[in-house]
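Changelog entry: the DNA-protecting protein DprA record was regenerated in this release. Current contents:
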Amino acid sequence: MEEEKIFQIALSLIPQIGVVNARRLVSYVGTAKQIFYSKASILQKIPHIGPAIAHEITNHAVLLEAERIYTDCLKQKIQVYFYLDQAYPFRLKQLYDAPLLLYFKGNPMFQHDKIMALVGTRKATEYGKTITYQIVRDSLDDNVLFISGLAYGIDIALHQACLELNIPTMAVLAGGFQRIYPALHSKYAFQMMEMGGIISEYPFHQKPDPRFFPLRNRIIAGMSDATIVVEAAEKGGALITAEYANNYHREVFAVPGDLHHVFSEGCNRLIQKNQAIIYTDWNMCRDMLNWQSQVPIIHKNKCLLWDQLTEQETQLLALLHQEKILSLDEISWKLQMGVNQLAILLLNLEFQGFLKTLPGHRYALK
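Regenerated structure tokens:
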């Protein structure tokens, strides 16, 4: 396992490969180790893998760097998750642009039942900080894990509120763990380790880079069931996170603000364009996500007649019985069924009381 992990790290280091091509290689070849021991002539036959990438793989230049990174991870007690690992966050796993690798330090809670991203401007007002604290406080009874980016303003207000109220929180970084940015917030990052932690797709020694900040926002959005934007100007990282969340078909909420304030423009615009649901209170947000009750519904005199199901319905229910929880895309791929056809099938089975819908377009048997 250790040897394969080094090859997985090496795969992520290949220049210009990208997560899509890296996944394509794994799909065609099998394991990361097998990729590096394949001939260049074989690799070039794989779609979109040209001579340049094949050469980078076969000259093994990145393997020494991968060994150094893995050694550092062991010393620093950093966990490394490959996208095929069972422990890799399932909400991310279904996304086309999910990171190939995640580096994590802390208490892994990736499979938490309820995960909420909360983001906003770096120049937060007292109103924004108050609303952030109020959201966290109001969620106390719902066992929610909050994710943000450790930045100035709304991000750090979220993490501070979680730490004060003993609510789990994670921060996604735009660089490695050696140089946490901003350095002033390092103390909060270390405090998160017991109930959450810090996440990055970059190795330990990687310096923060302006190019990485928009990319880390896709992880914040992708790991969450929904995103709340508290305060945002007309342009900024919070709106990028909201855009990613919308693209991933996750719910987006926006806190309305003063029409005359620059840091209300982004939230008000999201609401105006129907790109976000107006956030009024936590109960409304919880209801929208179907988080309001964990009490199982008992249907009196309900008899599930399997012999009246179609072949496709039987296959779908058997799949959910085996896998427990699956996303819409995962069911579509496993059953080789179109998403539109599958959506109708799922809706019918939900009406009949066979299954339930979970946040993030996931499904499970009742």
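The chain has three domains: 2-76, 115-288, 306-365.
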